[in-house]
Amino acid sequence: MKGKMGSFTVLVLVIAIMGLFALNIYQGYKYERLQAEVNEYQNTQEKWFEKNKQELTSLSAYSSPQHVKEVKETMKLSNASVGQTIIIDTRSQIESDAEGKE
Q1: What's the predicted TM-score (pTM) here?
Q2: What DSSP state is assigned to residue 80?
């Protein structure tokens, strides 16, 4: 009886070790897959960050006092009084400049 219990215990331990080994392989595969996904997200984030930096640079050029003065003179606008807001849409100009850079 003792020999059968010893063999059974060894068999259970072998099966358990093989199961744990299989789970370890699965976990490694899952980790690699998730790592690839994280890397893809990081690359996308870096691309968006660079694009945003370029957009901010373009925007700062268009919101500079010199550019605003040029637009004011070109459109023959008067000075805004206190509390008055003037909005100048330069999106089409920014987009055409961005296309010209590419």
Answers
A1: 0.47
A2: P
